[in-house]
Design goal:
With 243 residues, this protein is of the alpha+beta class. It is 44% helix and 23% strand.
Length: 243
């Protein structure tokens, strides 16, 4: 009779050890007291979702706080003509949705998986109860909002002050740090992002972003392969981004 191996993978409803470790390595989450981190993870539901799975639409009631264990979430906005474009991509170890959960107002953006994603979701009622029981979590979430606000100020300043070529280099470098995987051509960013998506993320036209990407390609800093992007020269990219 076949006996299951003791090394068999855990059920899909459980986090793999390396997936849980992603959260503990996150700078914000990792600063929480260990007992709070374990309480949060224990209350979360684990879902393994395909690319393109819609978690919430703009205007939906806020039902949960989301954490990305593997893969990525897209934050999208919808134009008056019905077209959707990506404003940001949330990677492993990061959390989203806390603002709407806390203030009880509807979602401001569409939230969907950008690729196959392992997702944690903490129901709103459980999160509010935990915040009530653990003031240190409440204070940490306030700190997280402060960090996001400062980041928004920096992004706004960049959009107004930086040349487009530098803004594109900074975006590519950020995506490489968060999602890049070593490969034969360098660091591979395989997020299925179009040039229109990249343009929306830095507030520029697709045509201008396309020209900047082609310039970086010509300089052999990156390589373009449809919706896959390779960083071939990280040092050169950092020099351009930090100029």
């Amino acid at each position: 009779m076949h006996r299951p191996s003791s090394s068999a993978a855990p059920p899909a409803s459980q986090l793999l050890p390396e997936e849980a470790a992603v959260f503990h390595r996150n700078r914000w989450f990792g600063r929480l007291p260990e007992v709070v981190r374990h309480q949060v993870l224990a209350l979360c539901r684990v879902q393994r979702l395909p690319a393109g799975h819609v978690l919430a639409r703009r205007g939906d009631p806020a039902s949960a706080w989301y954490g990305v264990a593997a893969g990525a979430l897209s934050l999208c906005s919808v134009l008056p003509d019905g077209r959707s474009f990506r404003l940001n991509v949330i990677g492993p170890g990061r959390w989203w949705g806390d603002i709407a959960v806390i203030d009880g107002r509807p979602q401001d953006l569409d939230i969907q998986t950008q690729m196959a994603t392992t997702l944690l979701s903490l129901p709103r009622a459980d999160m509010l109860d935990l915040m009530q029981a653990r003031p240190d979590l409440r204070d940490a979430l306030l700190q997280l909002q402060c960090e996001r606000l400062r980041h928004l100020f920096r992004r706004t300043e960049e959009l107004q002050a930086l040349p487009l070529h530098q803004s594109v280099a900074r975006l590519v470098r950020r995506l490489g740090r968060e999602f890049g995987q070593p490969g034969e051509h360098g660091l591979c960013i395989d997020l299925n992002l179009t040039q229109s998506d990249l343009a929306a993320m830095i507030g520029a036209s697709r045509q201008r972003v396309n020209a900047s990407l082609r310039q970086l390609h010509k300089q052999q800093v990156i390589e373009l392969q449809n919706t896959r992007l390779w960083i071939r020269d990280e040092v050169a990219l950092r020099t351009i981004a930090d100029a």
